[in-house]
Amino acid sequence: MIIQSAPQGKGHLVIQQKEHAMLAARFAQSWGNDNFSELHPKSLMEFIVEHHDEGWNAIDPKLGINEETGLPYNLIQTPFEYLMETGPKGPNYAEMKHAYCGLLVSMHTYGLYNGRYGLSDKIFVNLLPEDKKNIANTMLSAELDRQDRLKEILAQDEYFSSLVQDTELFHNYKLLQFFDTLSLYFNMNHDEEREDTHFLNVPMKVGEDTTISIKRISKGLYGLSPFPFKKQPIEFHFDGKRILPQSNEDDLKTALNGTHLERETILCISL
Description:
- The protein is of the alpha+beta class.
- It has one domain.
- The chain is built from 8 helices and 9 strands.
- The protein has helices at residues 17-29, 42-50, 80-97, 99-113, 115-118, 130-155, 166-188, 249-257; strands spanning 2-3, 12-15, 65-66, 71-72, 197-205, 208-218, 221-225, 234-243, 262-270.
- The strands form 2 sheets. A 7-stranded mixed β-sheet has the order 1-2-8-9-7-6-5. A two-stranded antiparallel sheet has the order 3-4.
- The longest helix has 26 residues, at 130-155.
- The two termini are 32 Å apart.
């Protein structure tokens, strides 16, 4: 679950993880132009982005109340046992679609705890208490084993053998991370709180990365440079439920069940 920051006096937008992933998928489906190469393999990459957080889908509905906020648990505030449950479920689901999907989603799971393979300096696993770190490392070790197994399978396939070589593989991994973090940029903070920022290591073509800058121009309008999508202006959206903090879990469930979805629309242009 993602709990968006709220303007003064307003409720927080509660965003399910699957809605976060759908926004990332909308970015992926609109990706590519003269400067940014198409996704490859396109249909599998679109599936990967749409389902990269599939492990959360069984967790979001049963998350209780965070008594410190009166709201559902927000991302890494989620109780540890639930985080460990989400970890392997996403790769399990993706692997049922295709070995390549399982590989990329497993890398996403592993990377979240280990600085996104060097793309981030936040090593989440190192922040855990020792007993929890051991449990997390066991889960992550199993994901590394999964990756080795799937790479061996894919290396025997004429079409996929080149796609599991490091340059090609990390090209697609970095694309997944960009779609994920761009979606989080919009999901985490409300419109007026979004600051100008830069996304590093965004692939333009295999072996060629760039930095994409994003600037809030006015309410709902954002400029990107360089511009990575097929057309501009281009509109994206995501949905959530806006609620106020509640005093107990039953009231929270009532508030969520009784609240209609609210849609936020984003218009992106080239700077």
